[in-house]
Structure formats: structure tokens, C-alpha cells
Amino acid sequence: RLDDLDLTFTTLEVDAEGIATLTLNRPDKRNALNAATVDELIDIFTVVPRAGVRAVVLRAAGTHFCAGLDLVEHHQEDRRPEDFMHVCLRWHEAFNKMEYGGVPVIAALKGAVVGGGLELASSAHIRVADATTYFALPEGQRGLFTGGGATIRVADLVGKARMIDMMLTGRVYQGEEAVALGLAQYLVEDSEAKAYELARAAISNPPLSNFAICSAISHLQNMSAMDAAYMESVVAGIVNTQPASRGRLAAFADKSAARVRPNE
Ligand code: 1HE
Q: How many domains does the chain have?
């Protein structure tokens, strides 16, 4: 249950419409991800899909979204290879629960979205940037490698060659260029206001449709084209015959439903 979550480095609040605000709340450390924060994300995204949450706005306290792996903790813990492998497996558990959980997660970005912070952001379904937002993978400069899914999700967003360039040379992307590459889908003055606007748009869809959008697409991408097409038909069989679609289809048929029109 949401009320039973024991949170120190994050906060979670759900409004009357079912929009949850998940805040990374360690601004004095630029929301660096220590092991305890990742545990909290696992707990949150274990509960969220079954707690009536319709959408999540993922935001951060302070002026930076997330500085990635807690480098000080990593240094102090002096981890062995198998220790860090398990750290990474926990990150994957958290981020997979986010990406595959079936509840839309919209990241409101600002400042640094770097290293593991970009791995976190790339696990969200929509990323909204503002003028302060910048993206980088400084792992190479720190003598590290990505361990939170960037080789999958960031490579998916920007392509292998750009990811390699970011890691080899410390290249930073921001502004319209970052949007053109797909690191964010929106660039606005107020990324949080826009994230809530997008969340409200998303929750006007039936939850089962959003479940398929925020779970099936990711699963299907992992399959061969033949298997994905088959599974898509199974998912569509369930979603496209759901009771919640009947009234919407009737409204289209009787011409009372809104039509799709170009932007003004
Ligand atoms: C941190 C971290 C951190 C800040 N771990 N403590 N990520 C990076 O290589 C990025 C490292 N961070 C930075 O480059 C900068 O801190 C920022 C650009 C994010 C912010 O700069 P700034 O000038 O606002 O803050 P600051 O003065 O550098 O840091 C403020 C405090 O946050 C300071 O702590 P304090 O106790 O001295 O006040 C910093 O130590 C702390 N801090 N970032 C720990 N990352 C699963 S593998 C994933 C691999 C990676 O993610 S590698 C990339 C790591």
C-alpha cells in the first residue's frame, strides 16, 4: 500500500485524480542515486500499478534532476565486482518496474540529467525538458561504465554512435538539439507544469489502454517481429474490446466525439 511506503530520499503524493507526484528529494546531493534511493524506487513502482495511480509525474527537488550514481557512496563502499553487479541489478529492477509497469511516468527534467540520472529519465515514458536541462553520460571520465540500462534505453533514444560519442568525449546535449535527438520530447519554460498537463491528457484514456501503451510496447520491442505481431494481436484483442471503449466508439459513430484535427 502507498501509505505503508517508508521513504527517506523520495516523496510520493497522489492527488484526487490519481496523478502521483514522485519527487527525488536529495537536492543537497543533486539527487544522486544511492542504494537506498533505488530501493525506494523499487518499493514505489511495486505498489503504484496496483494502487489506483493513473499517472506519475517524476520530478526533482532543487535545480538538478539527477546526478546519477552516488559516486561518494560507491567510493566509500569500495565494492567488489559482484557487489556492484547486484547494485546494477537493483537499478534494473527499479527502472524495469517503471518502464513495464503499465502506468504512464512523465519525467519533468531540469539541470543535470547525467549518467544514472539519464538512465532513470530514459525509463520514463515521456521526458519534458526546460531551458536549464542538459544530458550527458560522464561515466567514461569517472573511469566507470553505465550500469543502469543506458546501453539499452539511451542507445534506443539517440542511437549507438551518439551514445558512444557521449561516453567517449563527454559530449553534452541540451535545448532543441536534445529534443531533435529524442532525449526529451518537449522543451518548455516550465517542465513540471507541462508534465502535469501531459499526465492529465493521459489519464483521460481508459487505464487498460494506458497499461498496454506503457507496458506492451516495451515488451513487444524485445521480441522478434513475428512474435511481436502475434502478441500485439493478443493485446489488441483484450484492449480493443474492453467495456471502457464501447461508449467512446458509440460517441464516434453518432458523431458526438471529438475529431482528430491538426494543431492550430
Ligand atoms: C554527488 C554527486 C554524485 C553531486 N554522487 N554526490 N555522475 C556524475 O559524474 C555527475 C557528478 N556530479 C556533477 O557533475 C555535479 O555535481 C552536478 C553537475 C550534478 C551538479 O553541480 P553543482 O555545481 O550544482 O554541485 P556540486 O558542488 O558538484 O555538488 C553538490 C553536492 O552534491 C556535493 O556534495 P557536498 O556534500 O560536497 O555538498 C557533491 O559531492 C554532491 N554530488 N553529484 C555523489 N553523482 C549504475 S551505473 C551509473 C553510473 C553513473 O551514473 S556515472 C555518472 C555519475
A: 2
Nearest CA residue ID for atom 11, ligand 1: 67
Whether 211 maps to a domain, the answer reads no
Q: Which of 82, 139, 189, 192 is catalytic?
A: 139
- ipTM above 0.90? yes
- Asked if residue 214 belongs to a domain, the reply is no
- Shared-domain flag, residues 50 and 168: yes
Domain that holds residue 167: 2-202
Q: Is 119 a catalytic residue?
A: yes
For residue 9, is it within any domain? yes
C-alpha cell at 89: 541489478
Q: Per-residue pLDDT tens, the chain, 264 aa: give them.
A: 899 999 999 999 999 999 999 999 999 999 999 999 999 999 999 999 999 999 999 999 999 999 999 999 999 999 999 999 999 999 999 999 999 999 999 999 999 999 999 999 999 999 999 999 999 999 999 999 999 999 999 999 999 999 999 999 999 999 999 999 999 999 999 999 999 999 999 999 999 999 999 999 999 999 999 999 999 999 999 999 999 999 999 999 999 999 999 999
Distance CA 223, CA 227 (A): 6
Q: Which helix (H) or strand (E) holds 21?
A: strand 19-24
Angle at 86 between CA 24 and CA 41, to 5 degrees: 20
Measured in angstroms, how far is the CA atom of residue 180 from the centroid of ligand 1?
27
